[in-house]
Amino acid sequence: MSAVSDQSRAVLLLNGPNLNLLGTRDPAQYGTTTLEEVERRVTSLGEELGVEVVCAQSNSEGALVDRIHEARGWAGVVLNPGAYAHYGIALRDAIDAIEAPVVEVHISNVYAREEFRHTSVTAPVAAGYVAGCGVFGYELALRAVLRRDAERREAADGV
Ligand code: DQA
Predict the structure, then answer these.
(1) What is the CATH number of the domain that holds 98?
(2) Using one digit for the tens of pLDDT, what is the confidence trace for 22-49?
(3) Domain assignment of residue 153, given as a range
(4) How many domains does the chain have?
């Protein structure tokens, strides 16, 4: 369990398989920015917006599921599921099982690529979806998570 000072102001930035290779993996699709740099940018945007960003990456679906469970009571999750978006039913169910909003990110425009990338089993249960904006999409997704979280808290308070 990641120790965060205030769960309601914590966001998980979670990257799936092969995204640890960002920077050198297929730069035509994913650019040359490393995962470390993405995490630095999102963490620093989080500081500006008053949230603590916890960063994690795994190449296995079970570990991603565990991380999502840990973020249950948090403000939300920015998730690039990598290839698990296309067939990861356990990951899909984990997103569906938590109340915190999960915004799905794809760096590349998956709809301009191979047909198997056009299906996402995770998107229907995500609170939002960003694709094709490059690594800037992670920053958009963080803003979207916080907006969704504010909306659900307002709805719960009957505002
Ligand atoms: C990706 C797109 C997926 O199809 C692919 O398997 C990835 C990266 C993206 O960020 O564009 O690993 O999620």
Answers:
(1) 3.40.50.9100
(2) 999 999 999 999 999 999 999 999 999 9
(3) 7-157
(4) 1
Q: Tell which one of 110, 114, 138 to mutate to probe ligand 1, the residue whose CB is within 8 A of the most ligand atoms.
A: 110
Cβ neighbours around 50 below 10 Å, total: 8
DSSP result, 82-127: TTHHHH-HHHHHHHHH-SS-EEEEESS-GGGS-GGGG--SSGGGSS
Is 123 among the domain residues?
Answer: yes
Query: pLDDT per residue over 113-124, tens digit each?
Result: 999 999 999 999
**Planar angle of CA 134, 136, 140, nearest 5 degrees:** 125
Ligand 1 atom nearest the C-alpha of 17 is 12
SS3 at position 41: helix
Residue 1 counted as domain residue: no
Pocket around ligand 1 at a 6 A CB cut-off: 18, 80, 82-83, 85, 106-108, 110, 117
Is the residue at 90 inside a domain?
yes
Ligand 1 centroid, distance to 28 Cα (angstroms): 13
